[in-house]
């Protein structure tokens, strides 16, 4: 005789996995459309058609187009759709545990290169849409605030390791990191000037080490 509790649990797990797969299919389709034709020109009907689902399914999972784009940014930033905050990821713990400031900075920037490679193109979509769309303007501001929080965390960790220049406060170091390690600079060098991501990483390491470390 089957156990009704186990059966219900199994069904719930399958439903959750199916819902997760559907969300992923929708965001994958939307990302391709956003990158190809921009945010304003992409409709929920187009996203649904590209994902092979009914438009009501997109509404059920996300509610609106802005929420679809927000999830794309979140997943690309993290590298997966696991509910683990960025600052609790293993590589951030590795930075925290590394006693040498220069090596800690290098670990952070190596992971930043990977993240920027995934998320910079879609952040360009958000930035371009922000001027004419209030929800995208709010999304851009949220992402900027999150990025500053992350870089302030790095600056504080470098200060704790006594790696910062003695004439530089933690706040000043955070401002420098936030400005230099930005989507705008990454896109200018890799997109406009044709640098490779590896070249960007070497330059950003040398630039930041000279600017903030003693």
Automatic annotation (TrEMBL):
Domain of life: Bacteria
Keyword Transcription regulation: yes
Domain HTH tetR-type: 20-80
Region ranges (Disordered): 1-24
Any GO molecular function: DNA-binding transcription factor activity
Keyword Glycoprotein: no
Gene3D superfamilies: Tetracycline Repressor, domain 2
DNA-binding region: 43-62
Keyword terms of this UniProt record: DNA-binding, Transcription, Transcription regulation
Signal peptide: none
Segments of skewed composition (Low complexity): 8-20
PANTHER family on file: HTH-TYPE TRANSCRIPTIONAL REGULATOR BETI (PTHR30055:SF234), HTH-TYPE TRANSCRIPTIONAL REGULATOR RUTR (PTHR30055)
Protein name: Helix-turn-helix transcriptional regulator
Naturally occurring in which organism (per UniProt): Microbispora oryzae
